[in-house]
What we know:
The complex is a heterodimer.
Chain A: E1 22-26, E2 31-35, E3 38-43, H1 46-61, H2 68-83, E4 90-97, E5 100-106, E6 109-115, E7 118-123, E8 130-135, E9 141-146, E10 161-164, E11 167-171, H3 174-177, E12 250-254, E13 281-286, E14 292-293, E15 315-318, E16 324-327, E17 332-334, E18 338-342, H4 349-352, E19 356-360, E20 373-378, E21 381-386, E22 393-396, E23 404-405, E24 412-414, E25 419-422, E26 426-431
Chain B: E1 3-4, E2 7-16, E3 19-25, E4 36-44, H1 47-62, E5 71-77, E6 80-86, H2 102-121, E7 134-136, E8 141-143, H3 149-152, E9 156-158, H4 172-175, H5 182-198, H6 211-220, H7 231-241, H8 250-260
Antiparallel strand pairs in B: 1-2, 2-3, 3-4, 4-6, 5-6, 7-8
Amino acid sequence: MNRPHRDAQSPAPPPGVPSGPVVRPLTGDGLVAHVGGLLLACDAADELTERLLQALWAASGEGGGPDAGRALIRNVAQVLAGAMTTSTAACAVAGPADGGTAVLVCGNATVTVSGGEGELTLGGQTALTWTDRFVNGPASRIELRLATAGEPHPRARLDAGAVPGGGLQWTAGPADAARPVRHSERSGAQAHRPPEAPTDPRREVPADAPAAPRRADALTPPGTPPTPHEPAAQATPGDVPDEDIRSQPFESVLLVRTADAPAAPAPPPARPDLEPDSRPEVWGAECKNGHFNDPRAHYCEVCGISMGQLTMIPRRGPRPPLGVLLLDDGMVLRLDTDYVMGRDPERAEPVAAGTARPARVDDRNGSVSRRHLHVMLKDWDVMLVDLGSVNGTYVIPPGESEYQQIPTGTPVQIWPGTTVRLGASRSFRYESHRKR
Amino acid sequence: MQGIADYDFIRSLGRGNHGEFFLARRPERLPITDEYVVVKVLGGTGEDAFRRATRELKAFAAVRSPHLVTLYDAGQQAGVFYYSMEYLPDGSLASPARPRGLADYHRALACAARAAQALHEAGIVHRDITPSNVLLTENGGKLADLGLAQVLTQGATITGMGALPSVEFTDPALLRGDPATTAVDVWSLGAVLHRFTAGTGLYGGLPVHDPLLTLRTVLSTPPMISDGLPPKVADLVRSCLDEPSARPTAAEFAERLEALA
């Protein structure tokens, strides 16, 4: 059953059109099918296989064309949802959508999409349900693999139809491959947003499944029309207990270069500045040696020279870092901009607006709020604003020994040497060589 | 942890500066022939941090040097970030698999310095050169594991999680918030050389159980070169701790170290 496809089923390539995409079956136990750029590989019970094939034909019939991948993913998700409680399947599908590629993978199977800048692999290996993704930009190669997949025969091809096999390999023709590829890496969450018609696996989970991370409000009965959801619907770190991580789908990007990689990617440019120079301009004064200082300082913070005797001429200049925050787990944060601290700070408003960086701070008993504390730099001062945290923010000013709670929503200035506690157990210290 | 993605872990290899290393079997999908690989699992990261970290690792992987560890893939599962690399069974300067002579260590560090030079020429600062990132090979060494602190948490100069005393090898200017330049890697090369030649660090014994106290000590104590160092080694270490513009390049460091042997 390993290599039955080699001499059968595949019609000879149409003469005169060598430049289009080529689909080659891989050896292995299962069934693979291709129609009009829509790809399916599955290893499942007969009845389910039949329904998956119907889902594929239906998607190609629904209009085919450049967006058929979307219909394919939707159809297949519905079939899988219906079969969830009765049988398990390994299955992988892919098809064109929106100038990119829509993929879905379920059970012990992987899908790899290669573009000019790299590869993205999605695996469903131990997932309870399935996962789907949209990969931006034209692909140069798409490979569906079941567990038993081998290599393609170089002359085998599957221009349309269904044959036994362990996987499929789709390669773009020279004309397609020559197009510049903007791969998913570029635009973060946008690049990997699920297809608009979402088939979030968490929507349809059998009631007796082991504890998989899911939100109760996301559960809808099978067959419910999909509704749009937040693009960032992926499990957030910490939502999934360690022992359940492997029940989740994974994605991976290949870093090692393969011998048959399309074209060696251009060497990346020298490390771009991770962020533009964000130092705001403030009023300050220079010491005799030209170091830019807080105009209220009596001594230069860099060389320690007295600033008292100088006739100071304040000027605007970029503010140097105001020191660092030393966290109790060893993290050191540079105070050159604002931070929002908490369990899930990335969606805080100042972070979204680009005026603050997120700093993830968590503890085992969950006493740190999602958005707990805003560390705010104002000219030469460091202020704390508690963002309405459940368990509060406490400070020990330098020279004192007891924690005092700070009020919610009101900026409170802190000085170097201050210790700050978030909730029950996490703390940090503000350090600076600036003395005031 | 039993594994991540399609990697099945065999055993833990220990904790690094901000993650844990595991020995794992190679999954079928990787286009390599090694039987074993090393997987580094970092803590939970956001989607943005994953994109940035992957971009950094791609840049690292694109640098051609025989003295850089080869990276295989990077990925995430349930928001947990990991990446995999080649497995070198001889261990690191911090924990060699078998006792080696000082000449072997010098040779390995010189190789790591050449790798750092290759990174520098590609515009990449490693930021995390420590004894555990200088890996031993049969006749030299390799530099592993880019410091991703700044990438995983923007603004961070060091991320926590795990054995902290690696701050001993970090240029204090970086801790104070100065931007990372290639000179900080040279500082680290000098600190590593000092550590395994003298047997002590530049700050003497550091408190290991209190990260806050450790960092305060490092920030408030000037580094001291041990009297026990041979004069030529002491000179080389001293030049690495000098003003950034006066430090040798990583390649010059490698040459001077090789000349000592």
